[in-house]
Write a structure and sequence with these properties.
This protein has ten helices and 18 strands. The chain is α+β, with helices and mostly antiparallel strands.
């Protein structure tokens, strides 16, 4: 049964998300020769070869930060228009600033290559449910997401209220939302899998309030599922205080301070990693599995992000990006209230 899910997921990635044709080149980047990341990578390779697509797996070292491996950099240097990438990693891919002076998504747009990514899979324990989420993509979710994107694109203000006491507001005037529809078949396009979430990038410095993170926090490549909420106090768009279980709070501060040092060394603002850079909503009607990559796509879960938003619609340029998840009660868009059920049926 599980092997069949791998095969169906590979078909979905190749035929539906990326729509790769014979004659196009397909590169798969992974950081392990066993377990989920390798099995789904190998399934994609096998299916692509069956379809006479020129496919190749590139292995890299597992990493949480730092520059991309030399083999990956060489691959990116030689990318051509209409090349396709599937990036499936337990850790992160690494950055490209030293060689390209820009980030991954900007490189993809410049090259005209297509991509689908699944990274930070270190904490994965429910592979079958993740595979089902890759397969599930429906026209209903896509149409609903496009309607929500239009609402956000035309809005000036957003307010989120969570089940555990989250109350934050932000200015989103003239910022365009990003909807991950899973339609990665045009040159320069791509996104994360599973598809089904929508992001908006508030005006820098405009986010204020408190966030009660009650689902999970992201620390390095690990998703930490929470038993008790962690509170972020946000002022003028920055995380000013973190409260909650001491061990988790200390790990969050260590992660923030580590990236602060990396940014200072790289010539970026060391406070950049503390800035709230994004707000997102999930639209898939599924249950959480304890992995941010999957859970932030689920209807009823919202996320706040800190760190880099450059190249995606924001203006916060720095190294590092983290998503933290909480259960949503309702959202107000320019004063109009939408419950979770309403978000799922626009």
């Amino acid at each position: 049964m599980v092997q069949e899910l791998y095969s169906l997921s590979a078909q979905k990635i190749v035929d539906d998300y990326l729509r790769i044709s014979p004659g196009e080149r397909f590169f798969i980047i992974t950081d392990k020769k066993r377990d989920f990341v390798y099995r789904i990578s190998k399934a994609c390779l096998d299916y692509a070869e069956e379809k006479k697509i020129k496919a190749k797996i590139v292995f890299q070292k597992r990493k949480s930060f730092g520059p991309a491996d030399s083999a990956v950099v060489r691959l990116f240097q030689n990318l051509q228009k209409n090349d396709c990438l599937f990036i499936c990693l337990e850790g992160k891919m690494g950055n490209f600033y030293a060689k390209f002076q820009t980030g991954f998504r900007s490189i993809m747009r410049q090259k005209g290559a297509r991509f689908a990514t699944m990274t930070g899979l270190q904490s994965l324990s429910n592979e079958d449910r993740l595979l089902k989420a890759i397969i599930i993509g429906s026209e209903e979710v896509r149409e609903n997401g496009k309607k929500l994107k239009q609402l956000l694109d035309n809005a000036k203000k957003i307010e989120l209220v969570g089940k555990s006491g989250t109350v934050i507001e932000a200015n989103i005037e003239e910022r365009k939302a990003w909807f991950n529809s899973g339609e990665f078949f045009r040159p320069g396009t791509g996104g994360n899998l599973p598809a089904g979430n929508i992001d908006i990038f508030p005006i820098e410095g405009s986010v204020s309030g408190k966030v009660e993170i009650d689902q999970s926090v992201k620390i390095e490549a690990e998703t930490v599922v929470l038993k008790k909420p962690i509170e972020f106090v946000i002022e003028n768009g920055e995380i000013m205080q973190i409260h909650g279980e001491q061990y988790i709070v200390e790990r969050l501060y260590n992660d923030l301070n580590n990236f602060s040092f990396i940014n200072q060394r790289a010539g970026f603002d060391p406070r950049g990693i503390f800035r709230i850079s994004g707000i997102s909503f999930g639209l898939l009607p599924l249950q959480p599995i304890g992995l941010n990559l999957m859970d932030e796509r689920l209807l009823g879960i919202a996320a706040v992000s800190n760190g880099n938003s450059w190249g995606r619609g924001g203006r916060n340029k720095c190294r590092g990006h983290r998503d933290h998840l909480f259960w949503l009660d309702y959202v107000k868009i320019d004063g109009e209230k939408f419950t979770v059920n309403a978000l799922g049926k626009l």
